[in-house]
Amino acid sequence: MSHKARNTLVSLFAHPVSSNIDPKDAYAVVEALGGEVTHGGHGQVMVRLNGHAHGFHDTKHSLSKSEVVDLRKFLEVAGIDPATALTASAAAG
Fold first, then answer.
1. Angle of helix 3-12 versus helix 82-92 axis, rounded to 10
2. pTM flag (> 0.70)
3. Residue-level pLDDT at 83
4. How many CB atoms lie under 10 A from the CB of residue 88?
C-alpha cells in the first residue's frame, strides 16, 4: 500500500470524522486492499471487497461526513481493521 493510501486509510477512520477526503483517494484505498471499484450508471460507484459489495454516490467533490461514515462501516463489515491493515502494509512495503 502506498504512503498516500495509508494516510487516506487513517483519515477514513479518524475521529472526528473528516470531510475533506477525495473520493479517488478513498477508492484507491479499497483497491490497495484488494477490492474492486467500478463506476456504474446513474451516478453510482460499486465497491467490492472480501465478498462484500456496496453502492456509493459518485461525486467529484470531497466525501461528505456521512459518506465517510458509510465507507468506514463498509470497510469494517468487509473485515478491514485499520491498525492491522497499516501494520501489514508496512511489513510488506
1. 170
2. yes
3. 78
4. 13
